[in-house]
Amino acid sequence: MALVSLTNVTKTYPAAERGGAPVVAVDDVSLDIEPGDVYGIIGYSGAGKSTLVRLVNALEPATSGRITVDGRDLTEMPERELRGIRLGIGMIFQQFNLFGSKTVWDNIAYPLRVAGASRAEIAARVAELLEFVGLADKARNFPDQLSGGQKQRVGIARALATSPRLLLADEATSALDPETTQEVLALLKRVNREFGVTIIVITHEMDVIQSIATKVAVMDGGRVIEHGDVFEVFSSPRNPSSQRFVATVVKGIPSPAELAVLRERHQGRIVTISFRDGDVSQASVFLELAAAGLEFELVYGGINDIQGRAFGHLTLAIRGADAAIDAALSRIASRVDVTEVD
After folding, report:
1. Mind listing the pLDDT tens digit for each residue in 265-298?
2. Residues 264 and 336 in one domain
3. Is the model's pLDDT at 342 over the cut of 70?
4. Residue among 269, 262, 278 nearest 319 (CA)
5. Cα gap 124→199, rounded to integer Å
6. How far from the centroid of its chain's Cα atoms is residue 334's Cα?
């Protein structure tokens, strides 16, 4: 059974001006998130992804549709019961949302105190989490004495304090530099792997999804326009909005402008060969071209790795007799996608 299930969920806000149309922030979304998933939800600003996560956390009610978390229907639940549900859902934020007047220790202890844990339970859990996030020596520091990455580690520890099954990360790395982002993503992977916590990652950054997610939903205009296994969505995006996102981290077939530059710099016929995990090796393609007596060079593209599965597009400038090029490309095209862009 899905840990989180959304069925035909819509969230509408009143019109900003009298006589205006209501604002549909989330539009008829249906998703199932399984236990153990790291589920990425990606979209440009205004796509509805942050609203969606607030619905899952019951911070806002859905206008229509059904939301269940761990088999319990949030849309039918009174506020008193929702407070208990929220204790089982951890949340980390872009701007950390730490209490500036509390120490690192007290920030992590706060949700445990709210939950009514004993002093001994709080002491043991906070010490465990400080060790886990690598901040045991910062327990008595205040947030303004920490770097951005350290603040987010405190945020992760605090979100894990009550041992939630579900962790919501809303743009959790957007305020961090690239190196610190990778450190935080590695920590979230450990959270998922070692604690078995299901994670929903809200982001506008495709490289975050590529680094951490197992599944992804692409949102645009409040709707989920594409979803599924990250490798499948990245390697074969169907929707134009998904294709634009993927293009930020994966170079595909050169655009007309890029092709014009390539033609100026390189002689020969320009061909893009698209690889997917389980097709053929790059080496076998290159050997085929070499055996045909052709010269070639890589002029555009690259290969990407998503959790051990490779895909990508390599654009080559191939030089030689046209008949030999045609024959070699025909043999290669029987095993892998070939696009001649010249």
Report:
1. 999 999 999 988 766 788 899 999 999 999 999 9
2. yes
3. no
4. 269
5. 24
6. 34
The values of phi and psi at residue 325, to 5°, are -65, -45
Please check whether residue 25 lies inside any domain of the structure: yes
Quick one: residue 325, left, alpha or beta (phi over 0 = left, psi -120 to 50 = alpha)?
Answer: alpha
pLDDT over 90 (residue 46): no
According to DSSP, residue 122 is labeled H
- pTM of the complete model: 0.86
CB distance 237 to 246 below 8 Å: yes
Cβ-contact 9, 62 below 8 angstroms: yes
Write the CATH number for 327: 3.30.70.260
CA distances from 213 to 52, 158, 337 (A): 17, 22, 27
Average pLDDT over residues 7-22: 87
Phi-psi domain of 214 (left: phi exceeds 0; alpha: psi -120 through 50; beta: other): alpha
Which residues form the domain of 38?
4-88+164-247
Q: Max Cα separation, the chain?
A: 80
State whether residue 202 is helix, strand or coil: strand
For 211-222, the pLDDT digits (tens) are 899 999 999 999
